[in-house]
Amino acid sequence: MKTEKLSSNYIYSLIYRASICLLPLIVTPYLTRVLSEENNGLYVFTSTVACFFIMFCKLGLESYGNRCIAVCRDDPEKRSKEFLSIFGLQLISSAISIGSYIIFVLFFVNESKTIYWIQFLYILTGLFDVSWFFYGMEKFRLTTIRSLLSRGLIVAGIFVFVKKAEDVLPYTLVMSACFLLEQLILFAFLPKYVKLTKISLSDVFAHLKPNLTLFVPILAFNIYHWVDKLMLGIICQKEDVAYYNYAESIISLPKGILQALGAVLMPRIAYLAAMNVKEKCRVMLKDSIEIISLLSCGMCFGILGVASVFVPLFLGEKYMQSVILAMELAVVVIPMSLSDLIQNAYLVPFKKDKINMISVSIGAVVNIIFNSALIPFFGTSGAVIATLGAGTIVFVYLFRHIRSFLGAREFAESILPYIVIGLCEAAVALLISRLGFSRPVLLVLQIAAAGGAYVILCVIYYLIRKKLDRSYIDPISRMLSDMGSAEADKND
User: Cα 335 from chain centroid?
Assistant: First the structure.
C-alpha cells in the first residue's frame, strides 16, 4: 500500500486541528453578541455532559484502534478483521452508553430537557466515529476534508439560524447535526479499505482488556479537562461557564496546532517501534519536544501579552471577566502540550500503557480535589489554578519516566531557552499595551513587535548555538530532516 509522507500528514493534521480550533474563533464573536451569557453557558454545560457519554461509546479506541490499525495496515485481510472486531466492541459500548443517556434525560434532567434531547444527536457520533481507523491508515487528507466540510456547514448554520438571545435550540441542533454528519461521511470510504470478514465474539472481546487499559487514561484525561466546566455549572452560574469556556476557546487554536504533531507522530512511531527502530524514535521524540517548546512558549507568552487588548475586542465588553482567565489559561499550554506529546509519541507507541494510565489518573484526582477546594472560593480563577496544578503534576510525573529514553539535560536544553525568550516576548507586548492607541491598532502593533522579537531572539539563539557547536542544527531543519529520513527508513 502506498505510504503517506509524514510531512504531508503533519500539514493535513495541522489543518484538521486548526479547523476544530478556528470554528470557535470564527463564530464566537457573533455568538457572544447574539446569544445571552446564560444560553451560551447552557449550551457549553449540556455539550460537556454529552461528551462524557460519547467518551464511554468509544472507550480507548482513539489510541487503541489507531495503534492496532497502524501495525497491520499493510495486510488487507488482517486489517479488515481487526477493524470489524474492534468496531464490534464499539457497537456494544455505544449501545450501553446511549441507553444510559436516555435514562439520564428521562429521570434525572428537570430543566432544559429539550436541549438534552437535541444533544442526543451529538451522542450518536460516538457510535459512528471510525476516524481511529483512518488515522491508523495515515489517511489524514480524508479526515481533514470531511472536517472542513462539517465546520463550513456549522458556520453557515449558525449565521442563518441563530439570530436572537434565546436561539439556543437552533444553535444546539446545528452543532449536533453537523458533528453527526462529520462521522457518517467516513463510512462511505470504508469499503475501499475493509472487506467483510467472518469474526467471532471472542475476536471482539479480545480487544476489551487492552482497550480498557487505554480507556482509563482517556477517562481521567477528560475528567480533568471537562470537570472544571461541569463544576462551574453546578457550583456557580451558567454565565461563569460561558466566561471560562470562551477564555478557553482563545487558547484552543495554539493547543490544536501543538496536538497535531503528536497525532501524526503516534502511528508513525508505533510502526517504527514495531520494527524495533528505537534510536530513530528517540531522535524524532527529542526534536519534537524542542519544536513543541518553540511553538508552545511563543504562543503561551504571546497570548499572555495581548489578552488585555484582544479579549474585549474579540468577545465584547461584557466578557471582560475572560481577560484574566485567558492569561491564566495560556500558562497551561506549555505543560499540557509537552505531556500530550510524550503520551502520543512515546507512551502509546511503545505500549507504556500503565505509565500513561497512572499519569492522567493522578491529573484527574488532583484536578477534582483542587476544583472542589478552589471553585467555591475563587470561582473561575479557581478552575484555572486547578487545571494548571493538575497539568504541571502530570508533566513532572511523565518527565521522571521518560528520562531513561531521553536525558534530563537534553530535555532542559529543549525547553528552558524558549521560556526565557517567551518572557521577553510577553514583556514587549505588555509594554505596547500601555500606548494610547485604539484596540485594533494596539493589537496589530503587539503581534508585530512581540512576534518579531520572539523570532529574532530565537534566530540569535540558534546562531550562538551554531557558533558553540559546529554540528548544531536548528530544530525546524532537524524536524524536516527527521520526516524525510523516517520516510526513507520505512520504505527500505
Answer: 13
Matching residue, cell 472507550:
59
DSSP state of 166: T
pLDDT tens per residue, range 285-317: 777 788 888 888 998 899 999 998 988 888 887
Q: For residue 298, which of 420, 431, 200 has the smallest C-alpha distance?
A: 420
Helix (H) or strand (E) holding 247: helix 238-250
Query: Which residue, among 458, 224, 169, has the nearest Cα to 335 in the 3D structure?
Result: 224
Q: Helical H runs in 59-200?
A: 61-72, 76-108, 113-128, 131-136, 140-161, 168-187
- Residues 6+ away with beta carbon under 8 Å from 121: 173, 176, 177, 179, 180
CA 446, distance to chain mean position in Å, is 27
Q: Whole-angstrom Cα distance, residue 91 to residue 204?
A: 10
* pLDDT tens track for 128-170: 988 878 877 777 778 778 888 888 899 899 999 998 888 899 9
Contact criterion met (CB below 8 Å) for 161 and 167: yes
Three cell numbers, residue 328: 491564566
Asked if 8 contacts 251 with a C-beta cutoff of 8 angstroms, the reply is no
**Weakest mean pLDDT among 23-27, 232-236, 378-382, 397-401:** 23-27
Query: Which cell is 437 given?
Result: 492607541
In tens, the pLDDT along 240-281 reads: 888 888 888 777 767 766 766 666 666 666 666 666 666 777
- Best-predicted range by mean pLDDT among 193-202, 428-437, 479-488? 428-437
Q: What share of the chain is helix, strand, coil (3-state, %, to 5)?
A: 85, 0, 15
φ/ψ region of 200 (left if φ > 0, alpha if ψ in -120 to 50, else beta) reads: beta
Domain ranges of the chain: 1-206, 263-492
Mean pLDDT computed over every residue of the chain: 81
- Distance between CA atoms of residues 31 and 171, nearest Å: 9
Q: How many helices (H) and strands (E) does the chain have?
A: 19, 0
Cα–Cα distance measured from residue 389 to residue 228, given in angstroms and rounded to the nearest whole number: 13
**Alpha carbon distances (Å) from 121 to 18, 179, 184:** 24, 8, 12
